[in-house]
């Protein structure tokens, strides 16, 4: 697991990376204002975004001792554990997932599920155990490793959610207009 923090404006964003042979799971806090929201989805939202991505190893840039270049490549699946900034904390009223990506990088429409909004971390744990949909196509070794790491991944998502609720992460930018915003690593 890799952990990184990046500053953006006044706040900081946190990134977790769980890397397997060819696949990675990335988690980050997120503050988002959709410039074209669907009805009922207006206003800022914040929480945690998780993406399953292809991982790519680059060629060494020096000797055998040099750092290994690593890239988080094509997205495979995304889940957004989001809620309205102005709403009731713990409502998960904007929590959804994107079952697939179109044209490689753009997510499919938001898919809301009652179970996901009711118990997001439990739903995530179950999804990382079952690995259905696009996750079925992962290499067998990566599926086994991801299932083994699922409790740690879900725990990291929970820690990020706590920090968002505490106002430490997933905060509004101070140096950009709020008609649209996307603050976070993912």
Mean pLDDT: 90
Our Rg estimate from Cα atoms comes to 17 Å
- How many helical elements? 3
- Major pleated sheet: 7 strands, antiparallel
- Give the H and E element order: EEEEEEEEHHHE
Beta percentage is 25-35%
Distance between the termini: 16 Å
The number of distinct β-strands equals: 9
Instruction: Please estimate the helix content.
Output: 10-25%
Structural shape: globular
User: What structural category do the secondary elements indicate?
Assistant: alpha+beta
- Detail the poorly predicted runs: 1-9
State the gist of this model.
With 186 residues, the chain is α+β, with helices and mostly antiparallel strands. It has helices at residues 114-118, 120-130, 140-165; strands at residues 2-8, 11-19, 23-33, 45-57, 70-84, 96-98, 101-102, 106-107, 181-183.
């Amino acid at each position: 697991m890799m952990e990184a923090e990046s500053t953006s404006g006044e706040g900081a964003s946190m990134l977790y990376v769980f890397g397997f042979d060819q696949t990675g799971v990335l988690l980050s806090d997120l503050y988002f204002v959709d410039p074209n929201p669907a009805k009922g989805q207006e206003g800022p939202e914040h929480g945690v975004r998780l993406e399953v991505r292809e991982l790519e190893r680059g060629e060494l840039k020096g000797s055998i001792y040099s750092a290994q270049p690593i890239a988080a490549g094509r997205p495979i699946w995304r889940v957004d554990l989001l809620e309205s900034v102005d709403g009731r904390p713990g409502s998960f009223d904007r929590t959804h997932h994107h079952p697939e990506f179109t044209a490689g990088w753009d997510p499919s429409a938001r898919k809301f599920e009652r179970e996901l909004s009711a118990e997001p971390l439990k739903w995530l744990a179950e999804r990382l155990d079952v690995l259905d949909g696009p996750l079925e196509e992962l290499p067998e070794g990566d599926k086994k490793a991801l299932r083994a790491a699922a409790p740690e991944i879900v725990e990291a998502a929970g820690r990020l959610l706590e920090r968002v609720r505490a106002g430490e992460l997933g905060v509004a930018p101070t140096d950009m207009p709020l008609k649209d915003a996307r603050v976070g690593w993912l």
